[in-house]
Structure formats: C-alpha cells, structure tokens
Amino acid sequence: MASCSQPNLDEAGLAANGTRHRHSCAVLHRACLFNSTIVPYGASEAEERHARAVADRLMIRNIFNSHSTPFPLRDLHRLGGVRQGSGSLADRILDAEVKARGFSPCVPLVWRPVWAFNFGEQFANTISPLHELHAAKLVDSHVLLRPDLAAAKRPGWYQQLFGAFSEQPLTSLREVGTRCLARDAQAKLRGDQLSGRPAQRCSAACYERLLICSFQSLLDTNQQVPAGFAPWRAAQYVAAHVMRGTAEPPSPVWRVLFVNRTQTLNKDRRGLRRISNLAQLLEQCAGWTGVGVRCSAREFGKQGVASDIRAVREADVLVGTHGSALDNALFMRRGSAMIEVRPYGFEGQWPDRYLKLLTAIENAVHYYQISTGAPQLSSPRPPYDVLAWDAWNRDTKVPWRTLSGVLRTIFWVNRSTSRLKRLPMRVWTSLPSAPAG
Predict the structure, then answer these.
(1) Measuring CA to CA, which of 7, 36, 203, 244 is 20 to 30 A from 146?
(2) How far apart are CA 361 and CA 137, in angstroms?
(3) Yes or no: domain 231-430 corresponds to CATH 2.40.160
(4) Residues 73-108 pLDDT 10s
C-alpha cells in the first residue's frame, strides 16, 4: 500500500450535516475496499450498526445519468461487517489480506460521482463539494480520492481535474479493491502463481478510518443555491494547482476564443452542437477594423486539462454552445466573459440550470446569451414548436451582426461589475438576414 500522511479529519464536523457543510458524510473505522465494495472488518457491534445505518441514510445517483432518482447506498454497498475467521471464501481472502498488510493510517474518501463521465457535470457535482470540505477544514490534501465508478474505466482527466484536492494519485474504488471471483479466490488461497488480470484480483486495501460521502449537487436543491456553493472559486483552486504560479501574459487586444466541436464524438442524429458558420465568423473577426480583437478556435479535451485551462485563462471571451467545453469558462479570470449560443427552442428552466445558473452564483465570469430566433438557423431544422429536449443537440448558425453586437457590449463593460449591472439585458436574439431585393 502506498505511503501517505495521516490527514487532518474533523469527524464531528463531517457528521454534522447542515452546519459547516451541506453533504452527507460518515467515517467508518476499520474498513476495507475489497471485491468492488466497502467492507467493515473486525469492527465492534456498535460500529457494524453504524455502518448499516450509513448504508441506509446516504442517498446516491446513477453515475451514468444526472436526472436519475436517488437511491440508498445499501442498494450497491451493504456495508455488512466481516468478522475475523468467519470462514467464507471471500472472508478468508480478506483475512489473509489484513494479515499481510494490516490497516493503513491513510484515509480514503469514497464518493459516487453524478454523471461521472461528463466533464462539465463535475464542476457542480464533485469539484465544488470537494472544495467546500477543504475550505471548511473538514479534510485536507492528505486524504486519498477513491471515486466509486463501478466497473467503468476511470477517465484520464480525473487526475488533472481532482488532483488539487489530494497529494496522492487518484484511483477508483474498484482499482484498489479489485473484483474477487470464486475461481480467483481459490487460486489465491492455494498459492497458485497467477499473471495478467487474475493476478490483480482479490486484492484489498484496509484502513483504520474510511470517509464516505454523498455529495449534494444542484439537482438536489431545486436550483436553490446553498450557502458555501462556489463553483468559480472551486475551479480557480484547481487552476492555481495546475498553473502553479504561471501568470497569464498581458495582451493589448481582446482575445476571443471559440469552442470548436467539429471532432466531437457525439453521434446524435440531431447534430453536434456546433457553430455551423465558425469558419466564416473567424474570417469576419479577422477583418473587423477599428477594434483591437483577435479570434481563434479550440477543440477542448484533446490536449489535456492543463492545456485547456491555460487557453481559457489567456482568453477574455469564450464563445460556444451548450456542452462541457463551455464549462471551462469557470477557469477564466475574474471579469472575463462567456457567450452561450443556444439553438432554436433551447430555452427554459432546464437550459438555465447549467452555465447560466453556475456563473450567476458568484458573477465572477460575466454570462451573455445568444438565443436563436428562427428555426432555419438551426440544423437539422426543427419545427417551430420544438421542445427544449429535442432542440438542444442541433448545430447553430450565428449571424455576425448579432455576435459583434454582443462583443461590443462586452468590450464596453470592460470587466467592470458596475457597468455590467447597468446593462438592460444580457440576452440577444439572432435572426436570419432579410432576403435581398
């Protein structure tokens, strides 16, 4: 087991949900990550009762869908205790693992991320909660991060995105407490020489203390922003860790960065949420006289989190459609601006609950919106009465006169909060050009 420093863990503060934090957390004593689950081992009867109560109390969601109904942790992890020498095949393996390795003073934090494989969802669902616990001094960076991703592969961006919150490498629960099939357990107990994947199975990581949390997100608050929820500050904490003191170079011109989704993996029949005339907009921006501006486009996610953070911190304005790439706006410097381009019909409470709400909480990044006012600007062309759910995943054409108008407003605001408050609106409606003649 990797060496680590024992973290400062405020057990009483973590248990007191609603005082110094808004999440449901619990500390288990003498618990193992084993066979893709959490197993209290050799605990007292009181500790076993506590573990079962935790499994009943903590509510979690499907890692593949943020709109799923919460369900009790016990449906995935019973947290049933194992007594030393109890005799079952799995228990005998666990006995052997504990005898060989003992209990580590390291403290893992286990949580089940909501929509675990969506980069943008993690700002509200994981980064902000982790930052809240750190800011309240309930945990520190010596804690081990062990997300529960079931049997799914851990995304490569997890370490870069969450690494600011732990000095140790991030690994998932299943990577540490590997599966233990009956045939693998029997082979291990016989002392067989195993290689490849079977050699990695039936391993356990046991700890004197284990922290398990159910993080509350905006999905659980009916869009009521709870105290302490600060997604921009949390993202700045991550950016500072990634940038490590690197300053953004000053620029004599406004730097406008477009999200380029031309290589997106989304195969939805309705489109790819691209700005369909991006090439033309870049040309028109390059020929924009009398304004000191430089426009460029970036395909986010291809060069790593660190590179993407540097790119948005060097930009003054980020322009894009609904999607994870636009969430990188939370890494931008205070007073920067983002423009969300919405396809025709993509309006209402559901679209508003994402970037519009997240940026409004702290108003550190100024939010502007271009709503498409005619169906012919979206592709494939939707019906006039299209619903938001069927409207969102379409490509959108952005008229230059609309975009340039929004940019002029941003340049006038010039990062000023007082000027921003004087604006009568921050939502523009784009319409197609009138036919010639």
Answers:
(1) 244
(2) 22
(3) no
(4) 999 999 987 766 566 777 888 888 888 889 999 999
3-class SS at 10?
coil
Q: Of 282, 227, 293, 271, which is closest to residue 400 (Cα–Cα)?
A: 282
Tokens 């957390």 sit on residue: 25
116 Cβ partners below 8 Å, 6+ apart?
63, 64, 147, 149, 152, 155
Residue intervals in the chain for CATH 3.40.50 = 231-430
Look up residue 354 and give its two tokens.
């994402």
Q: What is the mean pLDDT of the chain?
A: 89
pLDDT at 169: 95
Mean predicted confidence (pLDDT) in 110-120 = 92
* DSSP classification of residue 406: H
Angle at 272 between CA 266 and CA 277, to 5 degrees: 150
Nearest Cα neighbor of 340 from 355, 330, 353 is 355
Peptide bond into 380 cis (omega under 30): yes
- Of 302, 264, 261, nearest in space to 278 by CA: 261
Burial 170-206 (b: 16+ CB within 10 A, else e): bbbbbbbbbbbeeebbebbeeeeeeeeeeeebbbbbb
Strand, coil or helix: what is 316?
coil
pLDDT of 213 reads: 95
Give the whole-angstrom CA distance, residue 57 versus residue 72.
7
Q: φ, ψ for residue 315 (rounded to 5)?
A: -95, 155
Per-residue confidence band for 245, with pLDDT thresholds at 50, 70 and 90: confident
Sign of CA dihedral 324, 325, 330, 335: negative
Helix residue ranges, H only, 44-127: 45-57, 89-101, 122
Q: How far apart are CA 146 and CA 172, in angstroms?
A: 5
- Are 61 and 112 within 8 A, CB to CB? yes
Say which residues have a Cβ less than 8 Å from residue 353's Cβ, sequence separation at least 6: 218, 223
